[in-house]
Amino acid sequence: MLDTLRRLVQAVTDAENLDAALDLIVSRVKSIMQTGVCSVYLKDDASDRWVLMATDGLKPESVRKASLGLSEGLVGTVGTREELLNLDNAPRHPAFRFLRETGEEEFYSFLGVPIVHQRQVLGVLVVQQVTPRRFSDDEESLLITVAAQLSALIAHAKISGALRTGGGQGDEATGIDVHFKGVAGVPGIAMGTCLVRQPPAMLRRVRDRMTDDPERELAAFQVALSAVKDELRRISQNLSASLKQSEMALFETYLRMLEDHALSGEVCRRIRSGESAETALKYVVLDLVARFEAMQDAYLRERGSDLLDLGRRILARLQDQVDDLGPLHEDTILVAEDVTPVMLGEIQKHRLKGIVSVKGSANSHVAILARSLGIPAVMGATDLPVSDLQGTIVVVDGWRGEVVANPSEAVRDAYQEAIVEAEVLQADLDRVGPGPCTTRDGHGVLLMLNSGLFGELSQLQRSWIGGVGLYRTEFAFLSRSRFPTEDEQRAIYQDELDQYSPNPVVMRTLDIGGDKGLPYFSFEESNPFLGWRGIRVTLDHPEIFITQIRAMLRASEGLDNLRILLPMVSTVAELTASKRLIARVLGELRGDGMHLETPEIGAMIEVPSAVYMAPELARQCDFLSVGSNDLTQYVMAVDRTNARVANLFDSLNPAVLRALDQTCQAARGAGIPVALCGEMAGDPMAAVLLVGLGFDELSMSGSSLAKVKRAVLAFDRSDCQSLAALALSLESGEQVLHLLSEAFLKHGLSLLLPPSLRDTLALEACQ
Ligand code: PEP
Ligand code: MG
User: Fold this and answer.
1) pLDDT number for residue 314
2) Which of 187, 188, 664, 750 has the greatest count of CB atoms below 10 A from its CB?
3) CATH fold of 203-318, please?
4) If you measure from the C-alpha of residue 397 to the centroid of ligand 1, how many angstroms do you get, rounded to a whole number?
5) What pTM does this model have?
6) For range 556-562, the mean pLDDT
């Protein structure tokens, strides 16, 4: 049965259009279930009726003609109640409604299930039979499974159909506002014309071929390889003015991947053994990609997609299929199944206004680069019919993680207004002047930088930040193919400490596991977020921990601005053990004659046990720092990388706020400062709340500093405290958001609110 289902889903996926897909569904389901009739009714949004869209068993002429009102008939009952109906004598059911045009009078048995996608009923799948009988439990579950499996495909096909019938490509007058959900990749709004990038060539389609002239094939491969390397160097040159050195390192990694023996060495070996260059390339790349894709952690899986892109580029060169992007629109929106950093780099920066990717998340490389370049992006837009979008106008709403294709004039106007407002905000932020960040009545709040892989700060910003609140050392480990040596680490850390001296730099010890893995140190776990993560890994590998601590301490000699932060602490014992190791290393280095200050040591509060034990942890620490990304994940039991539950990932939920409150109280009780270094700190609304809760330091990415400072400057400390007290007493994150948005409006900070919130509040004001 599973095989039959899989084949059905595959056939529907390959169908040319919605009608073909539905015809396939009804005929296959009818034959699998051996019934008299199978039909699909879909909801027509314009008429608000269930329209018969495909049938096998009823009169074919009734397709698209027969329809029922929303709560009319058995189909309406299934659709509105969103539940299955299994009847042995359908005409006796009070909701039964006779549809003459379908010729259905002889059918007694009826089984209908709703087709639901993302909580919305798209339609109803029905089977009917002449003989009066109740369908069996097995038949019920089969139909439910089919409907569930097909709902996303139907949603996708329906949208493609709507796009194709909704007016000409980018036709201004006939826009129909087709919305696609994704995840917020980079905040901001853009509108422009889609440039759809298809993979340059398909490795899987390469037909196996042997060669009797390996030398010629080897030469062709070398030419193609160097052409791709040149292309990468050109792209990296293009981007070098806008990106930081650490971000450019990604392109060096790609070059290294191309030179790696596992790729080019293996391709050459296979060519020498008689395979053509294309065949050898196919097998080597697909094999490496499969190995990456089988890995648990997101970073390594992404390496797989980078490698696939590089392999396809070499293949395109071998096949002489180098495509020219052609003339680009002034406002180009880059759209692809899997947007890669190389695709991004191919487009001149001043023309690239937005990015939409079917795959990927806010943590993908491409999203990180787009953030640095200030380009709004929507990632993980799984229902997007990529190939139908070429040349169409779309709106990219990176705040809400939404794409609107074929926007109507009203929607375009609304978004155009939002774009102008964003420009006004930027101009306003550019004016945020020097001087420390304080509340309006002078209470100081230290704003710090989350450093590691983010854009450069302006000189002005550097002058008023309090230092680096989180330096994620993983990046030094990720861009290599082996653990960096103590000396390599020391040089990198010294650079960082030096740049921000005399301000403090909080260096976090290696935080791998969960969604962060190292290409050369990977392990499989069924529950990685509850597994071997952060301090658990490094305490089990003291040699890694000690090397890193030695590198940090040696780097700090003479600068004395190092603070050490321990990630994912879940027990007091972990803190004690880490402190003991740090003290030992410090003693040894001093013994070797180094002049070292004792660094401040802090624990990250990221898991519920650390919140409950915060008073005990605080007694043994010099500071606490909350990782709100992980804390939200663990308090709300929501995987931070899972797009399906992204709406439940809410750092403003009072449950999270109460955990933050307890942490602040613990720090206060022990007389030590408390910081927050997750994404929450960079959200101006949350930041005001955090000041009210009593956080002394907020650490965020460079692009959020001005916004947060602008917000904090506008509030008195007592305002922040009252907001925090009220928020703690509320029931939901939405209520907290509402409370904060109203306060922002009252303080003249409406421009700092996401556009969607501004619209909601304006609407409420009118009512
Ligand atoms: C956090 O969890 O909030 C945090 C700052 O650490 P990371 O995002 O690196 O896990
Ligand atoms: Mg964390």
Assistant:
1) 92
2) 188
3) Enzyme I; Chain A, domain 2 (1.10.274)
4) 25
5) 0.68
6) 96
